[in-house]
Design brief:
Helix 1 links the parallel strand 1 and strand 2. The chain has a single domain, classed as 3-Layer(aba) Sandwich (Rossmann fold). Helices cover 44% and strands 19% of the residues. The protein is of the alpha/beta class. A 6-stranded mixed beta sheet has the order 2-1-3-4-5-6.
Length: 135
């Protein structure tokens, strides 16, 4: 299964997790939307393609779920999405904080991927449990 990191998350984090996932039996392929679709790719272009791959997206962009057109695309193409919510909207996560957060939550995220029917939408708050929201 393919898990894509949106371009608002450093591509090196996706590359590092991809390497860490190689010996794992669950078979997750971790990719960066920026590396696969190019920098600045429009959500309307990559959402259908990720749906074809039966992929999952991890992003900071909560606006994807707020925009009706993009939300409908996620649903139509059966894409699962995780929104990483930073502790501060203006500052976001610093690089190493994001790495630490992602590694800490990785097992929980991949477990949810395995047991949840797509399309789905989860919010990953900086503190507390990951929770599901409607698409």
């Amino acid at each position: 299964m393919k898990i894509y990191f949106d371009e608002n998350i450093p591509p090196n984090l996706a590359k590092g997790l991809h390497i860490l996932e190689l010996p794992n039996k669950q078979g997750f392929e971790v990719l960066s939307i920026e590396d696969v679709f190019g920098k600045g790719a429009k959500d309307e272009d990559w959402i259908p393609k990720i749906g074809e791959d039966q992929g999952i997206v991890i992003t900071h962009d909560l606006n994807i779920n707020r925009k009706v057109n993009q939300r409908k695309l996620l649903e139509k193409h059966g894409v699962g999405i995780f929104f990483i919510k930073p502790p501060n909207k203006k500052i976001g996560y610093k690089y190493w904080e994001l790495v630490e957060y992602t590694i800490t939550r990785w097992k929980e995220i991949t477990n949810l991927v395995m047991i949840t029917n797509k399309p789905f939408s989860f919010v990953c708050p900086c503190r507390g449990k990951i929770y599901k929201i409607s698409i």
